[in-house]
């Protein structure tokens, strides 16, 4: 009989040291590290079991005119990181931050983040974003600092009950910002049509609407048939 050398291929999958035993093998960590519960990876510290801290955050913006508890309809939540330092791991298996495109951890995930590289800004498709930060019982880092804001545009679902859409987050309190370029996709159930009815309209006026304007298309993007370009205060 010959005993197979499991450590000869890819170090047996061990992150540090692979030790052959009769009929099997074991992974071992260098000094200052402990074996992860998956029996292959190693991590700093002397505590191998997990103590989990979960922080749930729903980012929102109060809209003073109607008391809406979420971001202004038609605006997306944007998360911008200014500082970021979380325990490094190739697959972010230890300490990590998860960001979801919605109001729960069941929403589509926008990113699972760790390490010390500053992540790119994350933008939700709608007006809700969910964050979950998890740290285990060993290895602490500085953490992260981020700012949340709104960005216009996004995908909105049209239903039988009318819903609002606003040009900018501070509608009613401030004029819309300069250099705005906002795209909204309004989608209804198959077999239904989308109706857009303006309740308030005040956009810079010009004969051909060549400056500020709102443009509507009968389809998914700008290649669809144009329904009109509007400006002024009519």
From TrEMBL:
- Key words, A-Z: Cytoplasmic vesicle, Disulfide bond, EGF-like domain, Repeat
Q: Which SUPFAM superfamilies match?
A: EGF/Laminin, Spermadhesin, CUB domain
* Domain CUB, chain residue ranges per copy: 18-151, 152-234
Q: Where is the EGF-like domain?
A: 3-43
Cellular location(s): Cytoplasmic vesicle, Secretory vesicle
Output the Gene Ontology terms for molecular function: calcium ion binding
Q: Which CDD domains match?
A: CUB (cd00041)
- Write down the Pfam families for this protein, in alphabetical order: CUB (PF00431), FXa_inhibition (PF14670)
Task: Provide the Gene Ontology terms for cellular component.
Answer: transport vesicle
Extract the PANTHER family matched here.
CUB DOMAIN-CONTAINING PROTEIN (PTHR24251:SF37), OVOCHYMASE-RELATED (PTHR24251)
Protein name as catalogued: Tolloid-like 1
